[in-house]
Design a protein that fits this description.
- By secondary structure, the protein is of the alpha+beta class.
- It folds into three domains: about 5-185, no CATH class; about 195-270; about 275-399, 2-Layer Sandwich (Heat Shock Protein 90).
- The protein has helices spanning about 5-15, 20-40, 45-55, 65-80, 85-100, 105-130, 150-225, 235-260, 265-270, 280-290, 305-325, 365-375; strands at about 295-300, 330-340, 345-350, 380-385, 390-399.
- A hairpin with a 3-residue loop joins strand 2 (about 330-340) and strand 3.
- Helix 3 packs antiparallel against helix 4 (about 65-80), helix 4 (about 65-80) runs parallel beside helix 6 (about 105-130) and helix 11 (about 305-325) runs antiparallel to helix 12 (about 365-375).
Length: about 400
């Protein structure tokens, strides 16, 4: 961070403190008093100068007090043809505060300042006409009389600049606040949508995996009382209790799914079953459709697996292809699926750049999710450099 940026930040923090207007207003009033001691004037002039500077101490607590600041400054200038340095500063600050807090519309503020400047200038013109020490002052409307209003033009320009600067700062801060509010609302909406999507995903998986298993328990326990001959009454009652408990669990599960599910625009997607390994060809076709290259190799005798294993394997392949598209666009991907006697092996390798990859190498959230998927069914997953270069994800899902 540069020294200029640090200094600017410190000054901004200082100006934001509650004591800042009181300290600066008091300091300017003390400076005005010292100036009056060095260059004394009339009582009216001195009083107006002190009122103009002292009123700035209330500029933040009560912004309309700046009207008193500007009016007293013009009064002090009208009472004395010389403009005090303290009044120059307080007048500019007062106009800035009026524009900054938009006490009135900027056009009205500038118009009021211009009228005050013209009134002060006219009073000076009348004073010059009565002063015998000055050359003859041309009458208003005659040749050369326009130059008499140079004071009014100069004061109006100062008022216009200070009010415009204050209004510009106010507009910029309002824009920043609106942008920050819009960004906060967008972030909140994205988080809410992500949470709803996650809840819907959990509900679908509970419905497709848990509810199927519980319903099978209920059916098998209920049918066992009729298909198993010679059951003692105690065993028959036990099967009935198991079936009843399973039905109660199904009811509770349906209630939980009702809480988790949220309304979605695409009802078909909300109620669609979770994908299985039968849809790998479709997944690879989607990968090829966006410019990727993928090949599927299956070894061993393909057997149907439980829903949890099918879903976990599918999601691991899906996330691996997503990572390949993200970190190695255009790379050739190979998906190897091996059915063994007691486990399912997965390997997704590409010939893109090896680790570390942009965005986290082997420790990203996607890889963490794949490891959790594998651990869910008692398996394991590793990711890193492939045997022939590139990047590879390997998993074993035992059953």
């Amino acid at each position: 961070m540069s020294a200029t940026t640090t200094l600017r930040r410190r000054l901004r923090d200082l100006a934001a403190t509650p004591a800042y207007p009181w300290i600066t207003g008091a300091a300017l009033t003390a400076g005005a008093a010292a100036e009056l001691v060095a260059f004394p004037g009339s009582v009216t002039n001195a009083t107006a100068i002190l009122v103009s500077t002292a009123s700035l101490m209330w500029r933040r607590a009560f912004p309309p007090a700046a009207v008193v600041t500007v009016a007293a400054g013009l009064l002090s200038f009208g009472a004395d043809t010389s403009l005090s340095i303290a009044v120059m500063i307080s007048g500019v600050m007062g106009c800035y505060v009026l524009g900054r807090h938009r006490v009135l519309h900027p056009a009205l503020l500038v118009a009021g300042g211009a009228l005050g400047a013209v009134a002060t200038n006219l009073w000076h013109i009348l004073s010059w006409a009565r002063d015998d020490r000055l050359p003859d002052v041309p009458a208003l409307g005659n040749a050369g009389s326009l130059g008499l209003f140079a004071e009014a033009f100069g004061l109006t320009a100062v008022v216009l600049g200070a009010v415009s600067m204050g209004d510009a700062v106010r507009s910029r801060e309002e824009t920043r606040r609106e942008r920050a509010l819009a960004q906060a609302q967008l972030i909140a909406m994205e988080r809410r949508q992500a949470a709803e999507a996650e809840r819907a995903a959990i509900a679908r998986e509970l419905h497709d995996i848990v509810s199927h298993s519980v319903s099978m328990i209920a059916v098998q326990a209920e049918s066992a009382t009729y298909t198993t001959p010679g059951l003692p009454p105690e065993a028959r009652d036990g099967f009935q209790q198991i079936a009843g408990t399973a039905r109660d669990s199904m009811a509770e599960l349906r209630r939980l799914l009702g809480v988790l599910r949220t309304p979605q625009r695409d009802e078909a997607a909300a109620t669609a079953p979770q994908p299985t390994l039968d849809r790998l060809d479709e997944l690879l076709a989607q990968h090829r459709a966006v410019g990727g290259s993928a090949e599927l190799r299956i070894t061993g005798e393909r057997v149907p697996l439980a829903a949890a294993w099918e879903l976990s394997a599918y999601r691991i392949v899906q996330e691996s292809l997503t990572n390949a598209r993200k970190h190695a666009p255009g790379a050739n991907a190979l998906v190897e699926l091996g059915y063994r006697a007691d486990r399912l092996t997965l390997r997704v390798a590409d010939d893109g750049p090896g680790p570390p990859r942009p965005g986290g190498g082997t420790s990203g959230h996607g890889l963490t999710g794949m490891r959790e998927r594998a651990a869910l069914v008692g398996g394991s997953l590793t990711a890193g450099a492939g045997r022939e270069g590139g990047f590879a994800v390997e998993a074993e899902l035992p059953w």
